[in-house]
Amino acid sequence: MHYRSVSSPELKRISALEEKVAEKLLENAKKDGGEPALLNAIVRHYPTTEAAEEARKALDAMPKAGEVKLSREVLLAHPSLLGPTALDIGPTLLDGKDANGELADAGVTLGPQSVTLKVTDKSGVERTETRPITIDRYRQARAAAEDALYASALSTDPHAGEVGRFERYIPFAITGSVEEDGVVVAPSVKLRKSESEDRPLYE
């Protein structure tokens, strides 16, 4: 703004300054987990910069009001979400057979009026499918989806090799078994060789 007010400002200099400011704003937005207000400010005030293009992509990828994003990984871990009372998605999209199409890694976006699927066809081309959804089924599906996301965030398969989101310091998991009188579920702590980058925290 100050440089624009001088007599005969150089356009190249203005462009360079805008790139620098937009890049700094984008860096700050990433630190705040993709703060949409900052991303929108970049797009609005510096629309021709490279940072603005990256900000637009980040904004497009963000869930809109009422939307819930469910990755393929989450759906594989919670197959009940595929049922007719939730997303009503055919299980063939997750059977691992490319010949009949597969749900892409981006998975599904559940919205108040529609369900959007990212699907990879048998030739490997990714396409988007949108299906309408009733408000009642949306509410049911959203509640089930939020439970699934919560469970995925807090626990992992105790026999799996990967580490859960909150396992960096406390390696806990949910375990259970089927008994004659019902299902028994309990929290457990994983025991594994220490490979933490934060070893001093344990000493």
Task: Provide structural commentary.
With 203 residues, this protein is an alpha+beta fold. The chain folds into two domains: 3-61, no CATH class; 68-154, no CATH class. The chain is 34% helix and 21% strand. The protein has five helices and six strands, in the order H-H-H-E-H-E-E-E-H-E-E. The chain has helices at 11-31, 36-45, 50-61, 72-77, 135-154; strands spanning 68-70, 102-110, 114-120, 126-132, 172-179, 182-189. It has a four-stranded antiparallel β-sheet. A two-stranded antiparallel ribbon has the order 5-6. A hairpin with a 5-residue loop joins strand 3 (114-120) and strand 4. The termini are far apart. The relative contact order is 0.08.
Poorly predicted tracts of residues: none
Q: Give me the side-by-side strand order of the main sheet.
A: 1-2-3-4
Helix content class: 25-40%
Could you say which structural class the secondary elements and strand pairing correspond to? alpha+beta
What's this, in brief?
The chain has 203 residues and is of the alpha+beta class. The chain has helices at 11-31, 36-45, 50-61, 72-77, 135-154; strands spanning 68-70, 102-110, 114-120, 126-132, 172-179, 182-189.
